[in-house]
Structure formats: structure tokens, C-alpha cells
Amino acid sequence: MTGAQPAGRDPRLNAIRIVIAMVALMWVLEVVDVALDHRLDRYGIEPRDPDGLDGVLAAPFLHVGFGHLIANTIPFVIMGIVIAFEGPLRLLGVTAVVGLTSGLGTWLIAPEHTIHLGASGVVFGYSTYLIARGWFNRHVVEITIGVAVAVLWGGALLAGLEPQRGISWQGHLFGAIGGVVAAWALTRRPQPAPRL
């Protein structure tokens, strides 16, 4: 039988495994954090503190309790799996652009002497990536997925941008910006026809 790939070689399955591994890491770290009386929370983003820059990478995997983690897990898994159907490189690329944009933006403009934790910046980035990529790619299926994401999570997106005590609207805002940047940067542009 030719043309068949072993199940382990399907790039989409590998990308879905990456999504599951990221979520598993979040849950393991939250269990450890609770066991350590929330001592891991100090590794979040500390705005404009050079020591707080490591939080740009750590913060998406740390949460303020299981309620916060559950609220981020569900959309992270759903939208992460949708992005995973584009393969592991696309998933990792989108996650990197969104995570770095969200984290660095938070580090730059959030109030000093605060700590920012959670995957919600990545979730906001995933959602705006899925909404924007159809626009940039002009692909009917991607536009349909974008409309569905806007309908299902549009209200939460807008509410999450409203400044509220205890909510990192800065992470949400820059995550959303990162999603649009990722959609633009990773657009499948048609190759020009060769000149004869």
C-alpha cells in the first residue's frame, strides 16, 4: 500500500500532541504551585523589572488557582487544536509570536509592582489569529472558522480588553495584537508566475 503514512508521522497529530503537552505542563505546574503555597507565581511577568523578563516565557504556564487555569484550558485546547491542523511548525510559530508579543507588551506597559500570570494572552492571540488568517488568506474555510471564533468568543474578547482590577488586560490586548501579526506574517502568499 503506497502513500499511507504511519500514524506517528501525521504532522497534525504531532501538533495536537504539542497542544496537549502544553496544557499538561500548565496543570502539573499548578498542582506544584498549590503544593508550594503559590511560590511559583513569583515567576510571572514583573513589568519593567529586568528580573521579571523571564516571566515572558514562564507566565503562560502559571495560573492563579484552578479556576483561572480551567477558564484558560478550554479555549486554549479548542483553538490550539484548530491551529494544530496546520501542522506543528505553524502551531509553534503562532504560539511564539503571540506569547512573545503578549509578554513583552505586558512587561512594557502594565503597572509596576504587579505580577501577570496565565495563558489568556495566548488564548486571545489564538482567537485573533483564527479570525484574521481567513482575511489574509482569502480561504473560505478559514473565514468560516474565523466567523465562528468571533461569534463564540467575541464577547469575551471585548470584555477582556476592559481594564479591571486583577485582570491583565495588557496581556489580552498584546496577545490579540500578536495573533493578527502572526496571521499576517504566516499568510500563504501566492507565488508569482515565472517570467518567460
Structure description:
With 196 residues, this protein is mainly alpha-helical. It has a single domain (9-185), classed as Rhomboid-like fold, CATH 1.20.1540. 64% of the residues lie in helices and 0% in strands. It contains seven helices and no strands. It has helices at 11-35, 55-58, 66-84, 88-109, 120-137, 140-160, 169-185. Helix 3 runs parallel beside helix 5 (120-137). The radius of gyration is 18 Å and the shape is globular. The mean pLDDT is 90.
The overall average pLDDT, rounded, is 90
For the record, the CATH architecture stands as Up-down Bundle
H and E string: HHHHHHH
What's the shape?
Answer: globular
Summary, kept brief:
The protein has 196 residues and is mostly helical.
List keywords for this structure.
7 helices, Rhomboid-like fold, 64% helix, 196 residues, mainly alpha
Set out the fold topology:
Layout: H1 11-35, H2 55-58, H3 66-84, H4 88-109, H5 120-137, H6 140-160, H7 169-185
